[in-house]
Specification:
The structure is a homotrimer of 263-residue chains. Chain A is 15% helix and 30% strand. Chain A contains four helices and 15 strands. In chain A, the strands form two sheets. In chain A, strands 7, 8, 9, 10, 11, 12, 13, 14 and 15 form a nine-stranded mixed beta sheet that branches. In chain A, a hairpin with a 2-residue loop joins β7 (164-166) and β8. The longest helix of chain A has 14 residues, at 127-140.
Chain lengths: 263, 263, 263
């Protein structure tokens, strides 16, 4: 059996010592734990970004992996820490809905309240070090999740993701801008983005329905299916985000184009 | 027994191959070493930043962990490389005082001069790869630190950390600005920041003495005890650094407020 | 025997879930693999930067290390994925020449075409997750590289690296700007940069031929041999890139100075 995997996703950056302190706490409790950095560059306190990040990452890990997520505008308030099982993945998350767009079968959800698995002294401002890290370490040592607290009966949702069906299509928005300026939306698409749909972002029509970045001339705006199954708008060899001044929240509309008369 | 841990803290960033080269050198000498990235985003050559980073990170690691620190304006000059034991932590640092605010019991300090543990060819500009990395690898293989060189009898201090007691309080400064724009000062505080103190940063009075970020309305400036035991000035759900145009070195004054007459 | 090492070099950044997904895919196929992040901060689609990064990093790793490189403007087009042996290092790279400045003896080159080692569903836009990651995992499990595809008989070169000999010297260019603003050129130098050469960058003469950053007063521009054996132009305790507004591609000329008459 391999040593247990613990992944880390935070908005701490690494110029501050917060991530380093969490790593130290985990390794002190379980020196055999194997740490995997997913990201420390989630934009500060951006729960939506974290949610779509996790949706694109968590499902690929081996069964039983423990994912620690600290993107937490509510640190120091009464918001709970949750242990959530999704498929065969195990997550420790603030109760802010950041896990709600991961499409895996929901298992147990537990409110993490048993202070026996926390650090002795819990600060008001750094639950990552004082709660998340030690609880993850104890889980990796084999602690049964039911020992962490009571089963949760309610939890926060992820706010502000808008998608509405309209008569001839769907109205959604950009939910994620990747490193290359590609715009990922919250609109699910089939394996091919058909040329018979019309995609509009803001006031701009994206007419080209391509399969991949290489399908069109440099500078062309294309709509394609992202590697996560969501509609994506990209500029070939460019940044759609810059070109369109688009960002998270920019509205995107997809309409079914009326059929052309056959030739 | 677990494989040995070696942490890395540098100002190299990761767009350059310097960190990667160090990792390769360590793993070639000791393939069983387990590397833990603490940070490669220390601001370039900012020894003070490195010092407070280390103070917030090193203490949490398992006994015997080897911490390699390369933040080194003096590379290529005559500044020494030091092996320093602090509590049960072992550090390899440039002799620039970067380890001087870690509050752990000082053990051995050795000047690393024995070239048997260096790379055969030592460049003038990349001691991280040619001295720090191989020495760390040899330590992780069980080399006795006394073999690395002579006991050190003097070493550099950390310059420019100013804190002076004044009649009714203390005069300090911002020493660290974290990812969220929170301002960490060099003023040690007790477990609670009392409402009976007055905190001034630059010309601005920070009247609210809160316990945590969630204690006050968004936009409020609060003074609180940071998770590292130092006085911290934060804006609730905002960036105190931006709000106050504050940065490392901005003066902070704490005064004991005269007691209010009891009601 | 130690668990196999797989290094990762990408231009994905870590705010997006792409690197995380690759790590998950690798660890799901081979939970014993040890992942080493080299960089996720290669400038987007900058193959030249990746090439010089790899030249400064790959050679230091233990024999048999698998290096996964995804800096790939051509994703989704017909460009091949190559398995390349260089010295005792093993690379998985897009066929864009990013491995061509690594000075190690070339061994096998194989076009990676056998879909048995890919993910079942291969997206058009994310070969890192769907081809590179699973192939690396299978290699780490002991799959013989010849099973990956046919031997390659041609491959892309790295475009646009210009170096020409001129009558009294060599004409090259800046190929890499490091974190500190030091300018690394494509001009190979001996162990010492002699004072009898004249280095010109753009219109500026760099008169000082130093050995290291500490050899001259702060602010001095010096030409020295970089830790990778290439001519480097640096400003002592400053940024030569800023000072000279230099960037990748800025021309650099080295001329042999006429001998001074001996005294």
């Amino acid at each position: 059996m391999n040593d247990p995997l613990i992944t880390l996703t935070t908005d701490f950056g690494t110029a501050s010592p917060y991530v380093a302190a969490m790593k130290g706490v985990i390794l002190s409790l379980n020196p055999a734990a194997r740490l995997v950095d997913l990201s420390h560059d989630i934009p500060p306190q951006d729960v939506r970004h974290a949610a779509f990040f996790l949706a694109g990452a968590v499902r690929y890990f081996p069964a039983g992996t423990i994912h620690v997520v600290v993107v937490d505008p509510g640190v120091g308030t009464e918001r709970a820490v949750l242990y959530v099982e999704l498929g065969k993945q195990r997550l420790l998350v603030p109760d802010n809905g950041c896990w709600k767009v991961i499409h895996l079968r929901l298992g147990s959800i537990i409110r993490v309240t048993n202070r026996n698995y926390w650090r002795n002294e819990v600060s008001n401002t750094f639950h990552g070090r004082d709660i998340f890290a030690p609880v993850a370490a104890h889980l990796s040592l084999g602690v049964d999740p039911v020992a962490l607290g009571e089963e949760a009966t309610e939890w926060a949702n992820l706010d502000g993701i808008r998608m509405t069906l309209i008569e001839d299509g769907v109205h959604g928005e950009v939910v994620f801008v990747d490193t290359f300026g590609n715009l990922i939306t919250n609109i699910v698409t089939g394996p091919c983005v058909s040329r018979s749909i019309k995609v509009t972002i803001g006031d701009i029509a994206v007419t080209q329905g391509g399969k991949t970045y290489g399908d069109a001339a440099p500078g062309t705006l294309i709509a394609l299916r992202s590697s996560f199954g969501l509609l994506e708008i990209a500029e070939v060899q460019g940044s759609a985000a810059k070109r369109l001044s688009a960002k998270v929240g920019t509205p995107v509309v997809v309409r079914i184009a009326p059929s052309e008369p056959e030739a």
